Amino acid sequence: MRDQILSSIGEPCAIIGLGGGCTLDVAKAVSNLIPNGGRSEDYQGWDLLKKPGIFKVGIPTLSGTGAEASRTCVLMNLKKNLKLGMNSEFTIYDQLILDPELTATVPRDQYFYTGMDTYIHCIESLNGSYRHPVGDAFSREALELCREVFLSDDMMSGENRKNLWWLLI
């Protein structure tokens, strides 16, 4: 993919990731591979990238995946038949555009399952090995907000979509 991009348009000045978690992760990987070369498998692990990626903008259209906030992009490693992370400070988005209206047309089931990802992350962080009082406080607040959204009469109301969306930041 890298060679196709470079041969057809030259080096881009920015990469834009628009969509859910997988799309955002692929955009982060493309951003990293353009200046570093090689294949994604070469960088699956911790801090293996040597150069910063191309400037990247993330525009999530689902709330709950966490891809917009993570230093990891998860990709399939075909040699190992596993999903593995490219983990680096260079993987973090340079800029985000966060708009809860982008979830307005998400199918109800998809909205629920990605939102539950947030809920599960809260539970994980409250039961993890490397806890911190500040992190615990954020997790408890986020857990309560998730419960309010998912137990309400209309979890997809404009107000609930905004509440779930702001858990992204």
Automatic annotation (TrEMBL):
Alcohol dehydrogenase iron-type/glycerol dehydrogenase GldA domain mapped to chain residues: 12-100
Pfam families reported for this sequence: Fe-ADH
Keywords: Oxidoreductase
GO molecular function (one): metal ion binding
Entries under InterPro entries matching the protein: ADH_Fe/GldA, Alcohol_dehydrogenase_Fe
Domain of life: Bacteria
Annotated PANTHER family: 3-DEOXY-ALPHA-D-MANNO-OCTULOSONATE 8-OXIDASE, ALCOHOL DEHYDROGENASE
Protein name per UniProt: Alcohol dehydrogenase, iron-dependent domain protein
